[in-house]
Write a structure and sequence with these properties.
The protein is mainly α and 321 residues long. It is 58% helix and 3% strand. The chain has a two-stranded antiparallel sheet. A two-stranded antiparallel sheet has the order 3-4. The longest helix is centred in the last third of the chain and has 22 residues.
Length: 321
């Protein structure tokens, strides 16, 4: 390609102050806000998934709707939020919490307590802890890490059913209003969603519920039309959960052993093990922080890459020999 026909880099971008913004985003007027399902939404929707996982979807619908209505009643005429986000329950006054306990029927109260028991074992002060503590059975403690892994995938059955239930709670509490010509389609989606992901109808319905998740489980920032990112509960959740459960990856930093009596090979393997020991020290001084997961991953990858290059260079004398 000649210089005459070469197009300037980023020529289709629009200059906004000192930034170049893609033309599509510029036409949206800054109204597009990115979010992370795992980082920002999972902590807020987790309580619904725990109730669904323990009670089943149909029973969970009744228990969660009962809790939402009890919370609305406890507000006693005050401006009432939508009780879908987990963190919303943490904002209730002590009087409102007492009113919920006295209003909520005992069947739903016990079911929700039991459902949240594995979370309470890790985080005793979660937003619904005021409902009372119940010890988790061994099966729940075993299941909890598995449930979290399922939640991290927004297309999993657990995540989809939780989003659908959150949508239903918003309607039940009068916070979500549906246009008359859309009601029939929405009712049809609710009827088939429990069949996800086995049926085609449920898979189509899941898309609508996933699309609504940010508005259900995140707070809108009216100043910049984006979403709030500094929710205290979200940060507290990742602070507690970062050291919970087994590591999914085998340890790749174990020292090598060698049976050779060759002095050069022994020297090289001692060098490679020294590099591993140095990397272990560096990683120990760089603890996991799930509130800054992107920074952690980049820095950890660079440290590991440095060690890998050093060990590969150490193989040079053996390969040359």
């Amino acid at each position: 390609m000649t210089n005459e026909t070469r197009k300037p880099v980023l020529q289709d971008h629009v200059a906004v102050k000192r930034k170049l913004v893609p033309s599509f985003l510029h036409k949206l007027g800054g109204k597009l806000s990115q979010y992370s399902w795992t980082r920002q939404l999972v902590p807020e929707v987790l309580w619904l998934g725990l109730v669904i996982d323990h009670c089943g979807y149909e029973a969970a619908r009744g228990h969660c709707r009962a809790l939402g209505q009890a919370a609305r009643t406890a507000m006693n005429g005050a401006e009432c939020p939508m009780f879908v986000k987990f963190s919303t329950f943490a904002e209730l006054s002590d009087a409102a919490k007492e009113a919920i306990i006295s209003t909520l029927d005992q069947v739903s109260l016990k079911a929700i307590r039991r459902s949240l028991a594995p979370l309470a074992a890790v985080m005793p002060d979660h937003p619904l802890a005021f409902l009372g503590k119940m010890d988790a059975v061994p099966e729940q403690n075993t299941r909890f890490p598995e449930l979290l892994r399922e939640f991290y995938d927004r297309n999993s059955r657990t995540a989809v059913l939780s989003s659908a239930l959150g949508y239903e709670l918003g309607i039940d509490q009068g916070k979500i209003h549906i246009a008359a010509h859309l009601i029939d389609d929405l009712v049809a989606r609710f009827k088939v969603i429990n069949g996800y992901p086995e049926t085609e109808e449920a898979r189509r319905a899941a898309g609508a519920f996933r699309a609504a998740a940010p508005t259900l489980f995140m707070e809108v920032n009216l100043d910049d039309a984006g979403f709030e990112v500094d929710v205290l509960w979200v940060e507290a959740f990742w602070d507690h959960i970062s050291g919970f459960g087994p590591c999914l990856f085998l340890d790749t930093l174990e020292d090598e052993t060698i049976d050779s009596e060759d002095s050069l090979e022994q020297f090289v393997f001692d060098y490679r093990n020294a590099v591993r020991a140095d990397l272990r020290i560096r990683l120990a001084n760089w603890p996991l922080d799930l509130n800054e997961i992107e920074v952690f991953e980049v820095v950890t990858a660079l440290l590991c890459r440095q060690a890998t290059l050093a060990m590969e260079m150490g193989n040079g004398p053996i390969e040359a020999a």
